[in-house]
Amino acid sequence: MSSILYDAPGPRTRRRTTLWSILGGLFVLGLLYLAYRQLDSRDQWDPERWQVFTDPPLGQSAADVWRSMLVTGLGATLRAAGVAAAIALALGLLLAVLRMTPAVWIRTPVTVVIEFFRGLPVVLLMFFGVIAIGLPIFWGVVFGLVVYNSAIFAEILRAGIVSLPKGQSEASYSIGLSQRQTLFTVLLPQAVRRMLPSLVSQLVVLLKDTSLGFIVGYAELLNVLRNNTQFFGQRYWFQFFVVGAAIYIAVNFTLSRLAVYLERRGTAKAAGGVAKADQVQIAGTHATGADGAGQLGTPP
């Protein structure tokens, strides 16, 4: 029995795979044990250190500590991510449409803009927004996230459109729809449903990139964790690191589960199927279509 891409492994290959999986698991467990012993030698597992979250020193209450992380820090993170995501999605849709226009004098500069901003570090764009343009810190962070992620969203949407069968466009033109009507009423809804896992995965990347606002002084979650560590003392750095990492993982896991839910819900509606959310990997670089520039064909 074989699959489409490769032959099914035989008994010997399955045994070898199982063996290497066990050895790999033991190696990872060994590394975790060494990390545990190293931290234990520095008393990082001492219950007294973890009381900073239940009975903190210096006249603070547990409510003050958790409020600083969940309300002030996480709230600032979600606020910047939400505003940036809304603007970046709208701008990305506009860039995707402009890049697919038949007019070369429009498509070429838009392509240059997308490729240029897609290759710039997000933190550099944040610095440009705060220092060069003079934006407030919040809007400087949003500016960097929007400029970078709008280019990525544009490529994701364009890839979804050009991946649809050409018969979609031909059928639309045959019933008298214009190119604009074909794009917005036929192609784009299907492309969005098809690329939902990729879009949500990029939203996870956007949310994590808000932590770069720490460098320009934005009071997001990472900045709040640093301030708490400086206030209570460096002896609590590991405890705040663990709790901060758990908060980031919980939020990103929720978004990832949302991607899986949307993928399953949209599978029956999307033409040609939907890429599995668990298999989608967005590195923030390439999300290109099969035909290069991805230009929309003109109606006959």
TrEMBL record:
It is found in: Cell membrane. Its main location: membrane. The lineage of its organism: Bacteria, Bacillati, Actinomycetota, Actinomycetes, Jiangellales. It is a multi-pass membrane protein. GO terms for biological process: amino acid transport. Keywords: Cell membrane, Membrane, Transmembrane, Transmembrane helix, Transport. It comes from Jiangella anatolica. Residues 74-259 form the ABC transmembrane type-1 domain. InterPro entries: AA_ABC_transptr_permease_3TM, ArtM/GltK/GlnP/TcyL/YhdX-like, MetI-like, MetI-like_sf. Belongs to the binding-protein-dependent transport system permease family. This is Polar amino acid ABC transporter permease. One of its GO terms (molecular function) is transmembrane transporter activity. The chain crosses the membrane at residues 18-36, 76-98, 110-131, 236-255. SUPFAM superfamilies: MetI-like (SSF161098). GO terms for cellular component: ATP-binding cassette (ABC) transporter complex. The keyword Lyase does not apply.
